[in-house]
Amino acid sequence: MVDTRRTKSNATTMGPSHGFVVETSMQQHGIVAANALQSSSSALQPPSAAGIAEQPPHDPGTSTALQLPAPITGAALPRCPAIGAPQQPHHSTTGFAAQPHGYSDVVPVLEQIHSLPPLRSHLAYAPVYASNGALAQMPLGPMHNTLLDPRSQVDLNSRVDQLTQRVDDQNNLIGQLLRQINLNQGPNLGPSDEERRAHQHAGEQFERSQADMFAWSPSDMPGIDPDIICHRLHVNPASKPVVQKRRNFAPERVTIIEAEIDKLLAAGFIEEVSYSEWLANVVLVAKQEKGKWRVCVDYTDLNKACPKDNFPLPRIDQLVDSTSGNQLLSFMDAYSGYNQIMMYDDDKAKTSFIIERGTYCYKVMPFGLKNAGATYQRLVNKIFKEQIGRTMEVYVDDMLVKAPKRGDHLKNLTEAFSLLRQYRMKLNPSKCTFGVSSGRFLGYLVTQRGIEAHPRQIKAILEMKSPSTVKEIQSLTGRAAALNRFLSKSTDKCRPFFKALKKGQKDKWDEECEVAFQSLKTYLTSPPLLSKPVPGEDLFMYLAVSDSAVSSALIREELGAQHPIFYTSKAFLDAETRYPKLEKLILALVIFARKLRPYYQAHRVIVMTDFPLRSILHSPDASQRLMKWAIELSQYDLLYRPKTAIKAQALADFIAEFTPSAEEEKRVSKKKESSRADKTSAEPDQPRDMWQLRVDGASNQKGVGAGVVIVTPDGTLLEQAITLGFPASNNEAEYEALLAGLRLAKELSIKKLAIYSDSQLITSQASGEYMAKHPRMILYLDKVQELLKAFPTFTIQQVPRAENAHADALASLGSALDTQFRRSIPVEHLDQPSIEEAEQPDLMQIDEDPSWQEPIIDYLVNENLPQDKSEARKIKQKAARYYMKGDMLIRRSYYGPHLTCIKYPQTLEVLCKIHDGECGNHAGGRSLAQKALSIGYFWPTMRKDSTEYARRCDRCQRYKPVPGLPAEEYHPQNSPWPFMQWAIDLVGPMPTAPANKEMMIVATDYFTKWIEAEALSSTKEADVERFIWKNIICRFGCPQSIVTDNGTQFVGRQITAFFTKYGIKQHMSTPRYPQGNGQVEASNKIVLDCLKKRLEGAEGKWVDELPGVLWAYRTTKRRSTGETPFSLAYGTEAIIPPHITVPSMSIEVGSLDQNCR
Q1: Cβ contacts of 295 within 8 Å, gap of 6 or more
Q2: Are strands 605-608 and 638-641 parallel, antiparallel or unpaired?
Q3: 926 has which bridge partners?
Q4: In this structure, which CATH number among 3.40.630.190, 3.40.50.300, 3.10.20.370, 3.40.50.720 belongs to the domain 539-654?
Q5: Residue 1083, H or E segment
Q6: Residue range 962-987: mean pLDDT, rounded
Q7: What is the rounded CA–CA span in Å between residue 438 and residue 435?
Q8: Which residue intervals make up region (Disordered) (predicted)?
Q9: Strand order in the sheet with 888-891
Q10: Per residue in 54-88, pLDDT tens?
């Protein structure tokens, strides 16, 4: 039987076009070639049999449809002895129902042609039946039609025998079939007939030259050269071969299997094999067509033994984006693409399979092998490496040639076909579509307008009945997942379906599921058209957060209209559902930045939000999680803007960023019903995006305080309590509260603010109703008016005190807080009135050379970035690690204190003090830089500057220790508890100092590396006993053990009795082996070297310099612990002279005055 139905393809043409489709279906007795060239402006007219011969010659410059002798219907079609059944009319469906194409199909019926007799000139004829049964010859070149004389008609069976004699001329038929088609046919090609004729002639020349690139049978495939690529299995040598037991099949299925094996043998795809170590079974899989079966091989065991080939596949969304928006497209598919790749010779036997009549193995790469797709992708990437992304897109066996302009399409096709010919890859004409404006690609419908959901996928949901079983619900979720890119807030829409799939659910499909299902169907009746981003343009990101999921919409704007690019959605993990609301919003931004990374890297993305996400990410009080997210987002060019009017129906789901949960809705409704005094919800007449600021001040005998409450548009509370450290009247306290609230609102980048206070004086003066007369009130009012300039929209209103109870409670830090707001409340301390800061002159230090801090500060404060995108991206990445504290730039640190950023000449002052000053120990460059970091300072070149400073130090160079023996591997000695074990030694004689002091006793703690040292004039047992009592026991407690050498000062009866009295165990090192007490010996060396560098020639002053040396040592990080001895002993770093002259976070955070309050 000859099948006139279209062959199913991954590149089915949808909608009107001016291209052609070459489609064939090989049957036992014939070939059907469907030529879809008909222009949308031409109609198929059935002329009479006599009128066919009278038609005028065809003009190649016009667009004329092929004419059939009569309309062909199922009843009118004659039976052919060689075919045995009437031909069926062709029906084409598009979308949900039959849709008219822009052309009419002409279906010439061809016999199965393996060869042709010699052709006359360049003409070929396709036999077509007329209504009277006569055989008409339809010219496939640009010539007129003629009708054969019925008397000269030969029998069809003999005609078939005649036409099957010569195989070599088969490609000539294909060429002539293609020659009738014009790649650029149609009235929109050019403004003149001459240009259309030129394009038509070029198309005909191309079609003649490329006819040999199509394969009609496996014998037409030469295969890819194995030297270029062949499929290797790389079976794990440790895997044991598996021989599957032969399966038994019913007789009718055995017939199907043997018929398929005969075809594979005839095609040369398989061969018989003996003694195979690996053996698999065949499996029959039902096709969509009823009664049809596909023969497969079960390679499960073999695939388990093969490692995965991690060759990357292209991103489907990027391929689809780059495909849409082109004027002409051509979809190509290889003829049995996998089978054109040869198997590696040593791996052929591993593909063996068994049937009843024997065992066979594949010579070509079969379907079903684990890494077959990766091998094919590697091949097409190699073939089209210069064209991919420019004129072609390739995903495994789906190949597409694109052209933004019609005139370039033929050139692009020529390049592709020349590469196919070079690598000997043949195409399947039944699955190729050329010169169309739209088509299906990778599950999407790509058009010149944009990207559309495929109607077949939408139809699958619209025609689906309400599920009643788990399997049907799973089918629904799978169909919805295929449309995720087109579904706004898809996780929220499908949430009831996933809840129904949970275990323990009795009623799988309830009313909630049915409502969600119908809502999904309603949405899909008008799915959105997705747009393609233009390189260099800004994109816009809208976010939405519900109690269980986050969603986003990536948008581009063109001529004031908003076009969606990508919808994404993700369900929260269990822990993420407990995040605060604003953290959920930032998490959504992070999640979708990861998912849409290519868009974020290629474009500047503007996040449309009414919440201060940028301020939160750069806040000095940000949590570790927020800091990590801020650094991750810093690699992208992100801007944050308040939401504007929604201009597209596609963004209707993103009007509100937070969707209240059911519990929240109940609480809000209950709250509205009750008559609570403190109204924190928005006023009825306020805009949706208006923020609220409620302030109050209190002055009484206990002190002066202020309270600030900021309410976000969704009802989230931000609370601040302020303690004033100076005497102030009640009105001054009210003004301080207002100023503090305005400063906080300014830092949050709020644009619309409603201010509420229970002070009539403050609200009236700020709104201009009252005039300020008192000098201090005038200063306060000027300060308020200056801050109000930062808010484009604001209102000031007096409210009764009962309605401002929340701010009043914060001001007095009493117990009037609402029970539902149980949380820790930050408290700020003000040391002086805000107006005194205004009275001081503003001083600004101006450097001649630009500082490294200026671009970062300019971005953090003013959001200014350089024009160069590369520099802007670098600054944003750096800025994520910094924040502003007043006028100071602070760098975050994950494992130490936050660092104050300084610049020259402060850097020189800090290096000088910690290297040469009172706390200086003339450390080397590495230790010097580490010490500067540990005490809270940072600048980018600190390691380089420290090394250079130490290298230029004269004392360091003159008294630098000269290395002797080669360095040994470092073996630090530790103790399990601070001050549990000490090592003591005597050093001397030293240069004679006042009081005849020539000796020094040194003790070192094994845990903290703390050193105690003292100058001695004598070294008797009493001196040692007094040192241990005063410097160790009285300060750090009784140690468990002390390590000494064998000197007489440490072994006498007096010192032994002293150790026994306090329960101290004494351990003595080996005589004449100083390394046995190496801990204190290393300390002796450090102390002596530092003394040399400090004293120079004044050697007798070593006693006076000893305390400074010990201080410098105790405040310097040790390599063995990574910490300073001071911090290990006291749990905090010491305040040293650089902190006094160069402010740092250590002083700001650890202020004594603030802590005493």
Answers
A1: 256, 257, 260, 261, 282, 283, 284
A2: parallel
A3: none
A4: 3.10.20.370
A5: helix 1078-1095
A6: 71
A7: 9
A8: 42-63, 665-688
A9: 882-885, 888-891, 899-901, 937-938
A10: 334 434 333 333 333 333 333 333 333 333 333 33
Radius of gyration of the chain (CA): 43
Strand 293-297 to 280-286 pairing: antiparallel
Tell me the C-alpha distance between 924 and 927, whole Å: 5
Parallel, antiparallel, or unpaired for β 109-111 and 1065-1068?
Answer: unpaired
* pLDDT, tens digit (0-9, with 9 covering 90-100), for 200-253: 666 666 766 777 888 888 888 888 888 899 999 999 999 999 999 999 888 889
Q: How many CB atoms lie within 10 A of CB 1001?
A: 22
Distances, alpha carbon 960 to alpha carbons 865, 922, 1097, in Å: 47, 10, 15
User: What phi and psi values does residue 888 have, to the nearest 5 degrees?
Assistant: -95, 140
DSSP-based three-state secondary structure for 53: helix
Please tell me the distance from the alpha carbon of residue 638 to that of residue 869, in angstroms, as a whole number.
12
Burial of 1129 (0-12, 13-18, 19+ CB in 10 A): buried
Q: Tell me the C-alpha distance between 1068 and 983, whole Å.
A: 10
Single-letter amino acid code for the residue at 324: S
Q: Is the pLDDT of residue 945 over 60?
A: yes
Q: How do residues 990-1014 score in pLDDT, each as one tens digit?
A: 888 888 888 889 998 988 888 899 9
To which H or E segment does residue 796 belong? Answer: strand 793-798
Question: Which residues of 918-994 form beta strands (DSSP E)?
Answer: 937-938, 981-987
Domains 251-449 and 893-963+971-1157 equal at CATH topology level: no
User: CA–CA distance from 686 to each of 603, 645, 690, 753 (Å)?
Assistant: 36, 17, 7, 10
Q: CA–CA separation, 61 vs 185, rounded Å?
A: 10
| Residue entry with tokens 């260099």 | 536
Task: Give start and end residues of each alpha helix (H) in 465-623.
Answer: 470-481, 490-500, 511-524, 581-595, 597-602, 613-617
Other CB atoms within 10 Å distance of the CB of residue 1030: 12
1097 φ/ψ angles, rounded to the nearest 5 degrees: -85, -20
Residue that the structure tokens 């040293």 belong to: 1136
Range from 125-129, 530-534, 794-798, 1113-1117 carrying the lowest mean pLDDT: 125-129
Residue at 610: amino acid letter: D
* Closest residue by Cα to residue 957 from 1088, 1093, 1091: 1093
Output phi, psi for 1011, to 5 deg. Answer: -110, 130
Structural class in CATH, domain 251-449: alpha beta
Residues with Cβ within 8 Å of 63's Cβ and at least 6 positions away in sequence, in order, are 39, 41, 42, 185, 186, 187, 196
Where do the structural domains in the chain lie, given as residue ranges? 20-213, 251-449, 452-524, 539-654, 682-839, 853-892, 893-963+971-1157
C-alpha 895/C-alpha 825 separation (Å) is 26
893-963+971-1157 classified as CATH 3.30.420.10: yes
For residues 728, 733, 739, 744, the Cα torsion angle rounded to the nearest 10 degrees is 120
pLDDT digits (tens, 9 = 90+) for 615-639: 888 777 778 888 888 888 888 888 8
In 3D, which of 1035, 989, 1028 has the Cα closest to residue 1129? 1035
H-run or E-run covering 436? strand 432-436
CB 474 within 8 A of CB 446: no
DSSP notation for 588-638 = HHHHHHHHTHHHHHHS-EEEE-SS-HHHHHT-TT--HHHHHHHHHHTTS-E
Residue 364 near residue 251, CB atoms below 8 Å: no
What is residue 756's three-state secondary structure? strand
Residues 730 and 761: beta-carbon distance below 8 Å: no
Give the torsion sign (CA, 589, 590, 592, 598): positive
